[in-house]
Fold these 4 entries.
Entry 1:
Amino acid sequence: MYQVGVPDRTIENFVGVLKSLAAKNDIKLQRACCNAFANLCSNDENIAGVIADGGLETIIEFAKSDDDELRTAALHTLANIANHPELRRRIVELGGLDPVLDNLGSSNVLVLKGASSAVANLALEQLNHPEMLEKGTVQKLVNLARKCKNDEVQYRVACALNALADNGDIKNTLKEQGAPEGLKALVRSRDPETKAVAIEALAKLGIHAKSKKDDEARLAREKAEREAAEREARERAEREAAEREAREAEERRRREEEERRRREEEERRRREEEERRRREEEERRRREEEERRRREEEERRRREEEEERRRREEEERSRNSRADALAAQRERQRLAREQRLEEERKKKEHQYQRNLEQERIMLERERLEREARGGQ
């Protein structure tokens, strides 16, 4: 697995934040993040972290964007990644060649600079040459060499054709596809480095440029290297500015996120406090309702007990009244019965006395009669 150094923890965390922001559907954030990727990839130690976890695929997708600024940043990032020999083939395998070639026809010079730099670095890997030839890379480079007057773009086109010319197996194909015509146009460039590279490429193809000597090419190359260093310094300054902008944007986003979270936390606490108060109020009402119901239940039970007590007392009084009435009735019956018995006794006694009196009278009469009969 490819690895170019181990990034320190700060850079690793920064790259992780950039990737998370780049995944958002916000073109401004994506621009800033991709510019930061380009600047980071100018250092080989940072490349592994940038391309890991789908980072390279994301950059390739950015290179297909409709936004010129985002495409420019993505193309420069791919160009910086392609500086590393082990990654040139991987970029092509992941479909990175197509957006690079498509952008060679752009009217935006910044886009052209990124695309031409990327194709020049990808051409340094000879395993990429068959696919590049198949997709019309030479024709696109020749057209660009003829039409674009920007020194940097012309230099990158010359470098790309020169890298292709290093492959002896495709020299005839390059000639057939018009590479010499494009290189001859570049020989007439105002930039001495571009001239030197174009002359070198023509020599590799077995074509000699007119009125150009080897020492002139060497001097031109030296001057071009100095100018290239100056350009690199300018590009680095631009990338650093873009990175600062990305960091500032991230810092603003972080502060906004912290403020949003603070407000959400305050709102959450406010809602929790309101909910707590509401629950306490509901609990208080519930207790009051339970107390009211308890008192009502106690009152109801008290009334029921009182009613039951009164009912029992009434029943008791009713039973007592009935018992008293019954006792009185029995007493009256007893007295009446005793009175009847007494009257009967008295009648019987009276009758007995009458009977005794009658018997005494009869006996006295009989005695008198006997006495009367005896006296006769």
Note: The chain is about 80% helix and 0% strand.
Entry 2:
Amino acid sequence: MTHSKRRVTPSVRLLRWLYLVGVICFALGVVLQVFFAGAALLVNPDYLNTHRILGNTVALLPVPMLILAMLARMPHRTTLLTVLLTLVTALQYAFLWGVTDIGLPVWFRAFHAVNAIVMFVLAERLARTSWKLLRGPQVE
């Protein structure tokens, strides 16, 4: 049984570009988050408010990215990694606010910083995969 490959439509290609822009914005947002967290600790605590506002904005990106991944008919692995990115992003709030509610020690909140590394690595991986998909043959 052979499957013929069909060309990717211009609308799907556009959606894939939008997905790539979203994942790059997310990765850059995480880098800025780390910068502002460091600035709040090492320069001036007022940077914490910038960190908080930017974090709440960046945290919104994975949901439209997930929708774009499905509409753009991204490979299943990419879509699943986008689901994982959405869950890992939600974990940021659990590490900050939910730790004491479920009886974990307060120091467990430090995983908020470690999770930022996971978020960046996932975003970088998704960006590379998306770029390769856009630069390769435009067939599905």
Note: Residues 10-42 form the longest helix (33 residues).
Entry 3:
Amino acid sequence: MCIRDRAYVFGQASTSDLAVTKTVEPALVLAPGVLTYTLAYASNGPAGPVDVWITDTLPAGTAFGGLLSAPPAWSGPTVNGQTLRWYAPLLAADDSGTIVFTATVGSAAVSPDWLLTNTATITTTTDSTPDNNLSAATAILQGLQIAKSHYPATVTAAWDFWMYIDLTNTATSPATDVVVTDILPVGVAAYSVQPGQGAAFDGVNTVVWNLPSIGPNSTVRLSIKARTYSTQAGNCLTNLAVADSAQAAPPVSAQDTFCAVSYTHLRAHETVLDLVCRLLLEKKNKTKTEKHSYQR
């Protein structure tokens, strides 16, 4: 089901040819967000229409934001709920122009397919060329946001660490048939990979989750436990995750980069956090010693 925003222009004139083109920016919008609509009209003659109205009905969950520009011939808009109306008492036979306005996309914007389709129609009782009376513009309500992270902050080569994916459905309708794919970086030991519940690992470098649904305004966390090879000490690795759904919005992706340290820097029973604290303390003490020696 699409949210449709319909615009109508009614004119009274003999043998007039009215045409309309409607566009929207951006093509992809988050809720809350703002859409900018441009309604381009043209009177191609041979006669000029009179008493022309433009009526635009905003989709549910959106609201009129403001008028950015309109030719002097037009008055309005008058706003009545979701309905906007402009009026021109007379257009010349060769008149053309654009009306530009914004609409805010609120958190209540609901569309099962996340499509916000605005259809503009221009009509007159004596239109000689009706084929150019219809134009549609579609924006997509982006529902998915993705973030990547890892734990611990310092990854030790050949030691366990965790990669996390936080996937949020920002829309007010469910995201269905969600597929999340995590591409493990070269250097992660395949034998050590332990994906979280519901995931499938291909045994090489790809982990996939198939989630039936993510509820409105909900976040799920997915995890992978793994180790790098010991030879990766001193190297930085980048982990990529991509998520898609049955809805119209395009896939989203996120990356996380971590650098592995050598386990030989760790003392017996010392954690990675202990190592970091010790190295910082040693650096601080070394600075103090150097400063004291210089003063002497």
Note: Helices lie at 272-295.
Entry 4:
Amino acid sequence: MSFNPTTARGTALSGGESPGRTAESGSHSIGVSQHGSPSISVVIPFYDEEANVQALDRALTPVLEALGRDYEVIAVDDGSKDRTLALLEQIRRRDPRWKILVLRRNFGQTAALAAGFDYARGNVIVTLDADLQNDPADIPRLLEMLATHDVVSGWRADRQDTFLTRTLPSRLANTLISVTTGVRLHDYGCTLKAYRREVIENLRLYGDMHRFIPAVASWMGISVAEVKVRHAPRRAGVSKYGLSRTMKVFLDLITVKFLLSFMAKPIRAFGGFGMILGGLGALITLYLTTVRLVFGESIGQRPLLLLGVLLIVLGAQLIGMGLLGEILVRVYHEGLGKSIYAVRNILGDASQTSGSAEPGQAGKGHWGSPPPNP
């Protein structure tokens, strides 16, 4: 199910700020930073975290102030039913650098982060959980590494969670994701990450895909680094995660792998399987035809005949699905003006370059648009 930020954003952003979006309304994209925008945006989703709100403010604010750079904190209240919103409003009245985005109901962490990305104005965007298991004091280390990379991900090397229900499934999932996507990280599930703005400004987040942002963004040829960060046991409140999310991760991984490998060429996925099945079916029917014509044996009652015909039909259907996929891909890219490549930068006069996409973006580090996320 796709997430539409125009319906998920509940009340307006506290303080009257407008989102830094592109004209592509209704999608999870971030617009170009405006003049006078903060250098750093910290996006934090909150859901029933009243016991941690004030402690998080006390831990986070000194760290950000010590950086000596303009910053903003985008607190996304994801439909909390406790006093989380009231406590956030208290912080907002005391510190106008805190912005509060209130969603109409609980849409989930991916939707909350996507909404925060829509309204973030900084050139660097940091994501952080509200439960204080990640130490805000690690943010400067991520920012230091971001000077030479596009994405820096936290790695909870000494994880303080239950081993059987949290740590072990997470390690298995991280290994599987790394092998499948080719982007090797020890800890995809760590929310503490830092991104250059251009990495996420064209990403669309759906479902529970926030943990796959480094893998999906790899389509653009980004560089990813990993930094060991501290991890503490949850001090208060109740964890929103459990074993039930493991299956969701595996299903999302299948989607990510398909998008990364076959988004621009679906015929190679469906058509490949179709040709294999159709070829097997053709060999079977050729064999049975030889048996009937050369040896004169009856083949009408043989199950192998039905299998051969079935494989040929399935092969034809898969090839047809691949062709339909090719048509849909062209409708997506051409109808919406999406690019099938990503440009980091253009040196020289781009207007004189034959076939250049969007010459007006010269020198702006235009990344193009990645394949959409499910």
Note: The chain has a mean pLDDT of 79.
